[in-house]
Structures are given as structure tokens and as C-alpha cells.
């Protein structure tokens, strides 16, 4: 007699479940249970949920769910088979009931394309990670070296640092222009460099303080910059001076000798730069435009410059020194402007000029 094959006992409530090993097909979306069930179907050439659950010692519900998932992704197919029963006196015969039998499909037909799709997704994700790392590296300072994010420059180094920021600008320069000033030619000429920035198409927004107009001839540069596309505004008083390049680097004075900056703080990618940008935007919203909608035949650029200087509380003597004209000439020109604006007083002239958008 041949020994009767024994069937492993089904997992009961008190039977400990064997530990599931790590799933090698997990990256393709199969759970550890689904992989174990699929391996059993392939190894046995097929099977029913009842038999597979007994062999793997897993709850039948988990096995049935795994088989449904495997069938959904075309790793197995289903066939219905008749269940047999023994009828005394007649022998083995069909019982009339059917049972679902699961047959494995060729793994390469389904797992191969799944692997190709997953590989393409990983390559795309890898490219995205590289782009993010590059962006992070360009926008953030080295957190392990905080001293690299801020540097004190002195003497000619101030001029050199401003020159480098202007040359490196690609998108936008934010500039608060007031005393003290950077020495213009040690070792670089900075005003031509700023004009070159404008010619390159970089957006430049500058807020000028009243004391900028007290520098003789400075109005000529302001006019040149405006013609090249600079957006300029005016405030009677600026609390500080700084220049921000592309929202990521900035320089601001630390010490001065008379009208000249002798030491400055150069900052790269630091939270301070973001604070400076917010400060600029707040001042910009409160500053007066350095543009006019009046026809040029009514008010010349010299007239507009004179009105702006007057709006900053500059005296006739200071204006004359700035424009290189006598106080008497300035007084006469102001009288002519007062007449053009049909104003009775200097105060009324300022009110009317503001109403017309001249200052």
C-alpha cells in the first residue's frame, strides 16, 4: 500500500503565523503575501485558494484577496473545475459543485513590462532629484559654514563687492540710493557698470533719498538710468542704504568716512537678504514715482527735476548748488513753475504737482 499523503494543518487561531520575508517584488507593487501566493501558484503549476492557504499556513481570506489582486494584474488566470465526491456503491463522481482553480501566467509577460515602467519612473524621479539638488545648492548657503554666508569687506573691497554683484545680476537689482556712497573708481567705475546692467535687460528698481539730489550733476545719471529702463522712486528719507542682487545676495554699509563707505557687510543666501527685500518693497510702496504723464512741451525734464528737489525740502541754495545755477535763477524758474501750475504758494505748487503725477 502507498502511504496516504498528509495535508499540512490549516492555520487556526492559536497557530503562530510564519514571519514574512522581505518582498523582492515589492517595487512592482506586490505585497509580501501576494508574492508568496504567486510563488506558490507558479511552483505548483496552479491551485485553489483552499489548498494554497493550507500549504502557506495563511488565513483563507488573505489568500483569496491576494489571488484576486494577482488576477487583476494578469499574473494568474482562473478556471472552474468540478468538485468530485465519493458515492457509496458507485465510486467517485462529479458532485455538481465547482471550485475556482488558479493557473500561473508567464512571469515575463506581465512582470517585464511592469519592471520597465517602474524603471522609467525611477529614472524620471532621479532626474527630478538632481534638479532639486542643483536648485537647493544654488539658492542655499552651506549650512555647515555660516561664516561663508556673510563677509565683511573694507576699503577697496567694498567697490569690488558691489561691482561683482552688479556683474552677476541676471534678473533684478533692488537699490536704496543715499549717502554714504561707494567710492566710484577703486578699482571699478560703478555708474557705467549700473548702466550696463540696464542695457543687459536686468530689471533695476531704485529708491532715491533727498540727499542723492544734493550731489551736483547726479540728476544727469538718474535721467540716463531712467531712459535705459530703470524704475525710480523718491523718498525724503531712507532709513538705510543697501543693494540686493537677484534676491539672493546683498551688500549694506557698516562704517563710513564722511560721504564714503569704508566697510560693508556682504551677504549671500541668508535670511537677512529676504528681510532686506521685504524692507525694500515696503519703502517702494510709499515712495513717489520719478515719472510723469504730462506732455514734454508743458514740463521739461529740468522742470520735473526741480519739482522733485523742491518736494524733498531742499532750499533754493541747495538746489542752485546741485544744478550749478545762482539762487536768483532758481527762484525765477520756481516762479515760472508756480505760474504754470496755477498755484498761489510754494505749498500749493507741490500739491498741484503731486495731483498731476509730476512728483
CATH class of the largest domain: Alpha Beta
Question: Which word captures the global form?
Answer: rod-shaped
Residue windows where pLDDT falls under 50 for at least 5 positions: 1-22, 292-296
Strand residues, percent: 15-25%
Helix content: 40-55%
What would the keywords be for this entry?
alpha+beta; Endonuclease, Chain A; 12 helices; Arc Repressor Mutant, subunit A; about 45% helix; disordered N terminus; about 350 residues; 3 domains; two-stranded antiparallel sheet; about 20% strand
What does this entry look like structurally?
This protein has 359 residues and is an alpha+beta fold. It folds into three domains: 28-86 and 95-110, Winged helix-like DNA-binding domain superfamily/Winged helix DNA-binding domain (Arc Repressor Mutant, subunit A, Orthogonal Bundle); 148-289, Endonuclease, Chain A (2-Layer Sandwich); 292-359, Arc Repressor Mutant, subunit A. 44% of the residues lie in helices and 20% in strands. The protein is built from twelve helices and ten strands. An eight-stranded mixed beta sheet has the order 3-9-8-7-4-5-6-10, with helices on both faces. A two-stranded antiparallel sheet has the order 1-2. A hairpin with a 3-residue loop joins strand 7 (242-245) and strand 8 (249-257). The longest helix is centred in the middle third of the chain and has 33 residues, at 107-139. The protein is rod-shaped, with a radius of gyration of 41 Å. The termini are far apart. Residues 1-22 and 292-296 have low confidence and may be disordered.
